[in-house]
Amino acid sequence: MAGLFGKIFSILSGAPEHSVEESNNSSKHFMSSGDDPVDLSFVKKFTDGGGYFVYCGSKKEIINTLKGAASECGESHFFLPEMLLTTWFEESGLTIAKNNPLDANAMASTCHAAIAQTGGIMISDIQTSGLKFAQLPSIHLVFAKVSQVVNSLSDGMAAINKSHRNQRPRAIITLKGKMDESVMQAKVDPNKDRQLYFFLIEDHLFPEIK
Q: DSSP letters of 106-140?
């Protein structure tokens, strides 16, 4: 995976800093319906829609890019409905609100899946502590493992069915960049004013997510 992305995307622009080099280990598992691996297909769709993307291959990169994202969006106080993200934010010197989203203008969460075909990110009430989408801060940092990037929405639903058999999500929503065509064309869409950052992290750095 590191050979595929390396550090080619800037969190400040969401655009490639260097040319993409494909990994020699790319397999059919990582291929979308087109010619690109699902990971790269997602990144293209996501950043074309105005989302900000960064790949982290080490804990140090996670901490450094968290600091960069906080500086970029002008926020140092984040609502974290999930405890598993707390350590990274504390080590980044950021302040955490754990119970009330109104205590912060920015938030962070995990997700269920990132969809290559649409550039969308699937989250649910499991990640938001049951809060409705409209209640969430408009600056949102999302963390995902490499293995959570899938080709289609049906693949994302299959992943949810597999990992949450005993706790089914009640409300699943899709996060997209505010410049995504579907968001811009919709008369009402909570994604319209959302500033979205996506941290793609190597699986071994995020074992808490099943």
A: EEEEE-SEEETTTTEEEEEHHHHTT--GGGS-SEE
Per-residue pLDDT tens digits for 62-75: 999 999 999 988 99
The predicted structure's pLDDT at residue 210: 56
Among 40, 46, 47, which Cα is nearest to 21's?
40
Q: Per the confidence metrics, is the pTM higher than 0.90?
A: no
* Alpha carbon distance 169, 158 (integer Å): 13
pLDDT band, residue 131 (cuts 50/70/90) = confident
Q: Which residues contact 148 (CB under 8 A, 6 or more apart)?
A: 111, 112, 113, 114, 159, 209
Q: d(Cα 155, Cα 150) in Å, to the nearest integer?
A: 6
Strands 113-115, 77-79: pairing is unpaired
Find, among 141, 146, 140, the residue nearest to 56 by Cα.
Answer: 146
Q: Give the model's pLDDT for residue 7.
A: 39
**C-alpha separations of 2 from 119, 123, 204 in Å:** 21, 25, 13
